[in-house]
Amino acid sequence: MAPSSAEVDYWDIERMSGVGTIARLKNGEILEAKDGMSSSFNVRAFHRGAWAYGSTSEEFKVQGILERVKKSALRLSKLVPSAYGLGRFRPAAKRYETPMRIPPDEIPVEDKIGRLRELVRGAGQIADTDISYADSSVEVSLRTSEGFEASQRIARCGFSLTCIARGGDRIERMFQSERKTGGWEIMESVRPDYALECARRARALLSAEQAPAGEMTVLMDPLLVGTFAHEAIGHMAEADHITNRDSVLEGKIGERIGSELVTIVEDKTLPGGYGTAGFDRDGAAPERTVVVDKGVLRSYLHSRNSAGKMDSVSTGNCRGLFNNVRMSNTLVEGGSSTLEEMVKETKEGVYLIGSSGGTAMTSDGYFNFSALEGFLIRNGELGARVRDVALLGNALKTLLSIDLVGKEVRAEAGMCGKGGEWVPVGSGGPHVRARAVVGGAGK
Amino acid sequence: MIKGLPDAEALAKRAAKSSGGEAEVFCELGRGISASAESGAFSDISEEEKSGFGVRIVLRGRAGFSFGNDVSKFDAVVAQAVALSKFGTILPRLPGGAEKYARVPGAFDKKIDALEGRDLLGRLKGMVDEMRTLRDVGVRPTWAGIEATTSREAVANSLGAYMEFSYTEIGGGAYASCGEGSTGFEGKESRKNDLDFESFGRIAADRAVEGRNPQKIEGVKAARILLEPQAVSGLLSNTLLPAIDGENVLHANSRLAGKIGRKVFAANLDITDDGLLKGGLGSFPGDSEGVPCAKTQVVSKGILKSFLYDWETAMQAKAKPTGNGFRGFSGRPSISPTNIVIGRGSAKRDDMLSEGGLFLVHWLSGTHTTNPFSGEFSVEMKNSFLVGKDGGKTPVKYGLIVGNIFDVLADEVVVARDCVEKAKSFVTGPVMLRADVVA
């Protein structure tokens, strides 16, 4: 493609083409099986603080779109009150491929479906099963006006499983997932009783009590801690919220914002992490960014754009089609306690397990999450099982209240929909004890 | 035939011939432009196009699906769909070809279709300027954005069904902050170029001012809660809609399964899915399988009348398809509401407010965390107020609304007959209900 004559500070072209298989089985019967292939071209132009974007799925239109977005960026730059340039970044290697042992496209569709049926066979005796499998292989190439060129192939594979149990007028569900960057080996490593455990948890919820309500001590499991790290802290540390002045972490670099037991990292290099890649939308190399170090806020998460605005350096967090600051894999680091010790040291509270998602407002710092199930804790022992329990709190207050951190760290895949654009992410941590408001229907 | 779209009819015939089965082709061409401002300053402008096609082949009673966006590879996509039909869902046949479609006037606005990115900047400036008029009392524009889209779609099958439809949409929103912890939001969408963007800025700023100095509420209390339309949409999208989805009903994953003809909700509650609603954001002549859209009474005077179905689920459930099978080119059709109209409003919003003793909630956060099967929810109130008996409003710092949607809607529910808004898939006035508030 011939370079353009229009003068902007920066432009780039990203080409994405993907193939993949999706299959969904309900009680072992196929609800959906599809293959597909698609491609898109995403073009950006930047000039003195103004961005313009364009995308198309037809290659012959790319040059025309590039010319138009350059003109749009030039026009918009005249309306931007304070000009700035793009921030510094560490360019990525020329080529990256997700490490994998067995490419999913070498597995026939019938074998994929056979494996899914095998996984849910036992569970189907005690609950309805709904299993959704997806593998994808996306080839991405990036070329910029600064002469940077790189390409990567990102492969993801795995499944999510929902088990549904009925009893009387009650319907309860349990959800588990096993999704990573990698190949079919992820499916081969799933333990045989994986679905059975999910089904048993769903059935057990039929006799679970309603959760209590009010402010109390909560023991969060690694997956809920991951949701907390991502939603409540990670989003607030995204530098676009800082430059936009709608984050409670504005101006707090170097300040203590949490318990000294807490360290939170954003790790673009995590092996198998759902958000792991060879470079971000800017072409920045992946890195492990320490966001909170022993309770002290150390870094925001940056794209080149936010780094330019704040005279900082990109942390490799520009993801999505255009220019969003996004997380990759966000983790709370492990501490020194075992789960048994943490339960034993809790006089009264609730142990919350699993996450059905959550949300947080960066501007006021309040979050709310829902756990999949929980157990009451009385005098250092686990008591009755509780269901549908939500958690509400102020992120910084909760972070400061953490007084026990577990040893073992686990992470889970998820999708983050910031700005209406969904990107794959990972999140996790160890067990953590804190104070928060629990919103159950039990009094 | 719509300019720019592949000839879906010819492709469907070609796919049927090469596969030996029934074939359906769905083609889509979408264009969107947007612009946004951060902290009151223009930040970006964007144009996007997407196009592609999905192919469904029914062979030996099973359906296979595949998709692509390069028509020169159409035959390879068909071959994939044929191969996958061996493992596909049971589907005896595709919709027939003698369908008549109603007209949906006002769905396409040439003025929206002709907009360019730069045309949005004046509207954006209007929103930001309105927020700035209250800067003296501490209001700050946080974010403002506008998006305009044009969609062109056609679906054809080898049995002769053919439908094409073009529609536009424009929408925008403004966020303003005031002091610590007070954020105001307002936003709307329309298929016509008739939105007053400046008013979004003004309302967002007013709400931010109203929310200053929020007070903490403590403990748990059963309360009357007046949900504004955006909050109604947020709560019901994740609790009621899964329960009337024909696929969940088919698999007995809805608490409403098996209850057609029974009283399930309060007697003053009507719920209708109206795919032909004039001016509705979800109005179409037919769904993306070519089944004509219709007005489906879901609940009448609290009595359950119908569920929503796409073609495939209706065939399996031996039910009548309701024209609710929608998709993009890369997905198989699935059940989606058109315009959910909440009706039988009996009171005026201001009369309900003037009674006092209730919480007023503009929107809810965390609605996606509700349990779609049990109906239990625990969602955070935002832009919310405690309205006293004297009508005085105190901003609430934070709180959760907790309950079970099936119990809540069976209890006392009052739908306002005024202040009706289009909020995502819903067309509703404010709704008052009873639930627990936890803080």
Short overview:
By secondary structure, chain A is an alpha+beta fold. Chain A has helices spanning 62-77, 109-120, 185-188, 194-205, 222-237, 239-243, 304-309, 339-344, 395-401; strands spanning 10-26, 29-47, 50-56, 95-97, 128-144, 149-167, 170-181, 209-210, 213-220, 264-267, 288-293, 296-297, 318-319, 324-325, 329-332, 348-353, 358-360, 366-378, 381-394, 404-405, 410-416, 423-429, 432-439.
Helices and strands, with pairings:
The complex is a heterodimer of chains A (443) and B (439).
Chain A (H helix, E strand, L loop, with lengths): L9 E17 L2 E19 L2 E7 L5 H16 L17 E3 L11 H12 L7 E17 L4 E19 L2 E12 L3 H4 L5 H12 L3 E2 L2 E8 L1 H16 L1 H5 L20 E4 L20 E6 L2 E2 L6 H6 L8 E2 L4 E2 L3 E4 L6 H6 L3 E6 L4 E3 L5 E13 L2 E14 H7 L2 E2 L4 E7 L6 E7 L2 E8 L4
Parallel strand pairs in A: 4-6, 8-19, 9-16, 15-22
Antiparallel strand pairs in A: 1-2, 1-5, 2-3, 5-6, 6-7, 9-23, 10-11, 10-15, 11-12, 13-14, 16-18, 17-18, 18-19, 19-23, 20-23, 21-22
Chain B lengths: L7 H12 L2 E17 L2 E19 L2 E7 L5 H12 L3 E2 L19 H4 L5 H14 L6 E19 L4 E17 L4 E8 L6 H14 L9 E8 L1 H9 L2 H5 L1 H5 L19 E5 L20 E6 L2 E2 L6 H7 L7 E2 L7 E2 L4 E4 L5 H7 L2 E8 L10 E12 L5 E3 L4 E5 H6 L3 E2 L5 E3 L2 E3 L2 E8 L1
Parallel strand pairs in B: 8-15, 14-21
Antiparallel strand pairs in B: 1-2, 1-5, 2-3, 3-4, 5-6, 6-7, 8-22, 9-10, 9-14, 10-11, 12-13, 15-16, 16-17, 16-18, 18-22, 19-22, 20-21
The CATH H-level homologous superfamily of the largest domain in chain B: PmbA/TldD superfamily
**Largest Cβ-defined interface:** A-B, 78 and 74 residues
In terms of DSSP E residues, the strand content of chain A is 35-45%
- What does the radius of gyration of chain A come to? 23 Å
Which structural category fits the helices and strands of chain A? alpha+beta
Largest sheet of chain B: 7 strands, antiparallel
User: What is the straight-line distance between the termini of chain A?
Assistant: 67 Å
Q: How would you state the average pLDDT of chain B, rounded?
A: 93
Low-pLDDT segments, ≥5 res of chain A: none
